[in-house]
Amino acid sequence: MTHLFKSLRRGGGRLAAGFTLAEVLITLGIIGIVASLTMPSLIQNHRKKVVETRLQKFYSTINQAIILSELDNGEKTEWRPVDTDDFWNNYISSYLKYLKVEDSGTYKIVYFTDGSLVAINIYSLSNSDGQVIYQSYGGHFVFFPEAKNYSLGMISQSYGRKSFRFGFWPNETSSVFKYHSKKGVEPYLANWGGDLNALYSNTTYGCNEIGNGSWCTAIIQNNGWKIPDDYPLKL
Predict the structure, then answer these.
(1) How far apart are CA 218 and CA 195, in angstroms?
(2) How many domains does the chain divide into?
(3) Fewer Cβ close by (within 10 Å): the C or N end of the chain?
(4) What is the pTM of this model?
(5) DSSP state for residue 172 in the 8-state scheme
């Protein structure tokens, strides 16, 4: 700063390079305004890249783990895990690279080294006496591209922003799960009838402000794991 004022005195109120202090301050102000306008866009684009990259990586990683597990445990269509612990301990954990795992009731929370995590739940229904009245042998994989956004309450909230929903029902024959039958972990499409527009417009599962966003993951997959320009939710 002392050097600056000495330069001003020598230059008769001008910087040595030929700019007045006022001109420099105006320039810095303009730079600040431009930065404030462009930074939100840069941050949003960076987040999109993180989501795209980690979604695709998770999809590849989890399905590779299932393929490896099939070599030891037989076809996935014949798996009969009784609960999430059984599925994790006997079918997946040995075939998946992860940082750490936590229990949160019905979910296994699996942290990955890239900063993401997945919450796994093998789905069943019980009556008031605690007896299982429906066992799907598959369930939900809720993926968080950034683990910092995870909380237990966020798992069942709207998807397509901070978290993305996948499903695993290889041995289900009901039409509800026809896009999951005999497949590995896929973007959640339970109850979808095949109409591409419904992925956006459905008021229950659709990727919009009214639906819960369950089908948002399928939209991204259908676009080559790139978030499309018409993606309706802000990440």
Answers:
(1) 12
(2) 1
(3) N
(4) 0.81
(5) -
What are the contacts of 223-231 at 24+ separation with CB within 8 A?
A: 225/52, 225/55, 225/56, 225/59, 226/52, 227/48, 227/51, 227/52, 231/207
Residue 135: Cβ-neighbour burial (10 angstroms; 0-12, 13-18, 19+)? middle
* DSSP structure class, residue 91: I
> 13-61 pLDDT, tens per residue?
444 556 687 766 777 777 777 666 665 666 567 889 999 999 999 999 9
Interatomic CA distance for residues 4 and 186, integer angstroms = 62
Q: Which two tokens stand for residue 136?
A: 């799907």
Tell me if 192 is assigned to some domain: yes
For residue range 140-165, list pLDDT tens digits in order. 999 999 999 999 888 878 899 999 99
* CA–CA dist 220, 51 (Å, integer): 10
